[in-house]
Amino acid sequence: MIFVYITNPTKEEAKKIAKHLIGKKLIACANILQSESLYNWEGKLADEEEFILLGKTTHKNYDRIVAEVEKIHPYTVPCIIKVPMSPNPKYENWLNSELK
Questions:
Q1: In 1-100, where does DSSP find H-type helix?
Q2: DSSP β-ladder status, 44-57 and 80-84
Q3: What are phi and psi of 93, to 5 degrees?
Q4: Options 3.30.70.120, 3.40.710.10, 3.10.20.310, 1.10.860.10; which CATH number does 2-38+45-98 get?
Q5: Which of 22, 33, 34, 38 is deepest in the core (most CB within 10 A)?
C-alpha cells in the first residue's frame, strides 16, 4: 500500500483530481490538507498556499495515477510522490475492496 502525495494550487483543484482518481478506482480515498510551500521556480522564490492531496492506493496503480494526474493537473511539473505505508489489516482490506 502507498500514499500518493500530490500538491495542488487550490482546494478545488485537489478535489477535482481526487474525484477523478476515485472515479477511475485508482485511489480508494483522499485527504486534502492546506499547507504553505516555499520553493524555487524559474529563478524566483515562491511562497504560496497549496493543498496536498494524500491518496491511498496500491503500488500497482502508481504509474497510472501519474499519467492521469499529468493529463489534468494545472502545474507544468506536478509534484506526485509515492510514499510507502503499512495500514492495519481491516483498513487495508477496505482499501483493496475499493480498488477492484
A1: 11-23, 62-72, 89-98
A2: unpaired
A3: -60, -40
A4: 3.30.70.120
A5: 22
Element (H, E) at 38: strand 29-41
Residue range 43-98, pLDDT digits in tens:
999 999 999 999 999 999 999 999 999 999 999 999 999 999 999 999 999 999 99
| Whole-structure pTM value | 0.94
Query: Is residue 84 helix, strand or coil?
Result: strand
Distances (CA, A) of 51 to 7, 12, 30, 60, 100: 6, 9, 12, 25, 27
